[in-house]
Design a protein that fits this description.
about 475 residues
Length: about 475
Amino acid sequence: MRLDEYARQDATGLAVLLRKGEVRPAELSACAASAAEAVNPAINALVGPIDEAAPWTPGSPFSGVPVLSKSGHGRAGGPLGAGSRLLAGRTVPADDLFSARIRATGVAFVGATTAPEFGLYAVTESRLHGATRNPWDPSRSSGGSSGGASAAVAAGIVPVATSGDGGGSIRTPAHCTGVFGLKPSRGRTPFEANHFFNLSVNHVTTRTVRDSAAFLDATQGAHPGARYLIPPASRPFATEVGREPGRLRIGFATALPGFATAGPDCAEAVGRTAALLEGLGHDVAEASPAVTWAGFFDAFLRAWTHAVPWSIDRLERMLGRPAGPEELELMTSRYRRHGETVTVADLLDADQVFRAATHAVDDYFAAFDLWLTPAAVTPAPLIGEFDPSGTDETAVDYSYRVLRDYSAFTPLLNVTGHPAASIPVPHSTGGLPIGVQLVGRAAGEAELLRLCAQLEAASPWQRRTPPIWAGSTWRGGEA
């Protein structure tokens, strides 16, 4: 199979070719290896080489399709450390439930993608692996924390990479790199490492809506003992792709009053998408949930940092020694110290703020079907702009700068648990990808996927490829 043919296919397309016998699994793994060899030196999205001999299960929907797992995800043999020197060289002993369900689709886990330390950051820059760069402009970040996943998918190494989202970590990298990133509803997929506020959700990063829907079908269902349970879908999510969404009421916003306002490129992308939605027959009006944003982000910071010292303490007990001064990012150490100051009363106060925000979002959905916002405040930031070991800021000052200047639009939905997706739209004036965020009702992935697929058909983003793209490196011959 030619590398340009491989890099243009999504997982669903590759699976069709495999079932027809037009390509063999070994060819696809070889293509993934060739793609990585061609583009990864420029983007640094992978932890280690591609395993062309990775096993796969026959007789399943995606048998033989190569995928990547996020560093720190519970995939047997994958990196345990999630970008941290503290756990460098350690591997995951066995699949967790999410990875087991991905593996059951028949895929070949051919490697792992980079992530920032413990998935804490909105950029993928670490002392362990260095900076993961954007295939559209290597002076820019691919986002975080699933930045290696989004860069690898955008650059054509694989069509699908596992990802996680605890504050925007699927959606923000998808925005930065021009791919599709869905954060499912809380409780839709297994996330066994969650604690207290249950902010994080597992899913995949893809180039197409149909791949995202298919892997959501394969992985849906919470893990045993999960605190949040939602009803299973009434029909497969894959069947929602191409289904008529009907006439929907969609509110849109480009600012979070009193906290952050989208920059011109991202605000204009929302305006263009709103106009496109109107042209598709939907009712569109400017509207937002009545959230007190400054108070919300104060609470979010407490919730975000309270578990950092607990998590590092657990790792130190596992290792039988304290973390050395060079084994943690500078900001991670500051988060640890800040988290130690968070009291039980602080967390109870945060819980009250989160309840109020959730009520506000539910009240919004009494009048509207979906909500449209920017996926981020600006396009992809420059490498080093938010480097967690490249600043003297306090944990609070750093966090607020990242939120106000970059990632403010995503965390609300981790708190409320609503599904949300970053959808690529035509690029910024500087040629960088832009994503808009569509938010659905609680447990409303079906309606959300229908609308995302309608937008994909109206403006097919997968035809746009970055300058650093595996397909453009093909010069004849087979992979």
